[in-house]
Amino acid sequence: MQAVRFIKIAAVALVAAAASAGAGWAFDEKPFDAIAFAAAQDAGKPILVDAFAPWCPVCKAQQQVLGKLQPDAKYDAVTVFKIDYDNQPDALKSLDVRKQSTLIAFKGKAETGRTVGDTKQSSITALIDSALN
């Protein structure tokens, strides 16, 4: 009886793992690194730079919006570079970021848009879409 129960549990776990493996997440998200950022730009990739602070309520609201967009396969090619506002002053300076909650979209080396303090899903989506076109 125990063996049958174990097999059923293992089978359910295996099916769940297989289903989640096929459901990819959009956004290749990584900490900001100048070399990786330059390589993504040189490759012409769509990029979103997210200058955030963990204590910032606006940044948290932006993260909720990005979380809603993340499962959309439309954004699979987007690389999100996260700049820690409190600990990466050189990155902030290089991109002329003056406030946390700054989102910047790039298509390769071309900046396609920038927003500060925006938490509306429609405008954040439009910003990211600007890097895809």
Written overview of the protein:
This protein is of the alpha/beta class. It has a single domain (about 25-130), classed as Glutaredoxin. It has helices spanning about 1-20, 35-40, 55-70, 90-95, 120-130; strands at about 30, 45-50, 80-85, 100-105, 110-115. The protein has a 5-stranded mixed sheet with strand order 1-3-2-4-5, sandwiched between helices. A hairpin with a 2-residue loop joins strand 4 and strand 5. It is globular and about 30 Å long. Mean pLDDT is about 85; it is low at about 5-25.
Number of DSSP helices? Answer: 5
The helix/strand series, from N terminus to C terminus, equals HEHEHEHEEH
Radius of gyration: 18 Å
Q: What structural category characterises the helix and strand content?
A: alpha/beta
Spatial gap, N to C terminus: 58 Å
**CATH architecture identity:** 3-Layer(aba) Sandwich
**Main sheet: which strands, in order across?**
1-3-2-4-5
Largest sheet: 5 strands, mixed
Shape: globular
Number of domains: 1
CATH homologous superfamily designation? Glutaredoxin
| Unreliable parts | 3-24
Count of individual beta strands? 5
How much helix, percentage-wise, in residues? 40-55%
